[in-house]
Amino acid sequence: MTNAPASLPLPLPTARDAAPLAAAITRAASAQSYYTIRLLADRDRTADAYRAYAYFRWADDRVDDPTTAPADRLAFLNRQRALLEAGYRGRMPGDLCPEEQLLAELIAGDDEANSGLQTYLRHMMAVMAFDVARRGRLISAAELAEYERLLATAVMEALLHFIGHGSDAPVNEARYAAVRGACVVHMLRDLVEDVGNGYVNVPAEYLAARGVTVIDPDDPAIRDWARRRVALARDCFREGRAYIGQLRNRRLRLAGYAYVARFEYVARLIERDGYRLRAEYPERKSAASALWLAGRTLSSLFQ
């Protein structure tokens, strides 16, 4: 790797050359995300939508890699943050790996002041920084709430940027409600696995108040936490669905309803299990879940 001057212009590959890498990463990570972008994203934003998903999928996997030393993880994060800042100053360096070129291409094509894309990139970078900082320690309720806010804002702004861009989308508290509910369920779904990777998605205050020293899915305190969080997510879904229903762009409404349905299904599984969280939920990928998601999404769209 050569250390090019910071002002050296980056010889970016063409969109046609870069698109296969971004699309391949997206498809391997999430079939739903891949087909949502392929079928619903604005045609002139499809390639960037793949880039946006793929870049952070790659970066998140690097941060979560258990074989990576803490110092190397922090160095990786600092490099990505520096690239983001350099890109928006117009001084992206030239020593980039293919995945980092995805970030460079996104920024190079972003000519909109305070764009939804920039909000997505900055908030997702903050989410990644938080994960690096919290690994191996407990977090407070305030930190958890801020994490949810960052992630919900990033995801919703990306949705609005890539699908039905420019269509009316009211700016109010309900704007991020649906995605916040999804974040809550996502953290419940991954709680058992995340604990093994050094992430505890239950606030320190709650653990101390309930005398919890080990995260055990059978512990009544952990099951009660899951119950409370599912109830919160349900409230968020109701508020978020009402917001999505106001959006004029049908593709955007379809994408929003499909996203919510995906996590509503997981919430149903958690409820069915009596709030006893599991390491895996293979039912998410079953034919039955696909039928339920399709029915739930379409009924929401045409109600």
TrEMBL record:
A Gene Ontology MF term for this entry?
A: transferase activity
Q: For this protein, what is the EC number?
A: 2.5.1.32
User: What start-end ranges are recorded for coiled-coil regions in this protein?
Assistant: none
Identify the keywords attached in UniProt to this record, alphabetized: Transferase
From what superkingdom does this record's organism come? Bacteria
InterPro entries the UniProt entry points to? Isoprenoid_synthase_dom_sf, Squ/phyt_synthse
Q: What is this protein called?
A: 15-cis-phytoene synthase
Q: Which organism is it from?
A: Candidatus Promineifilum breve
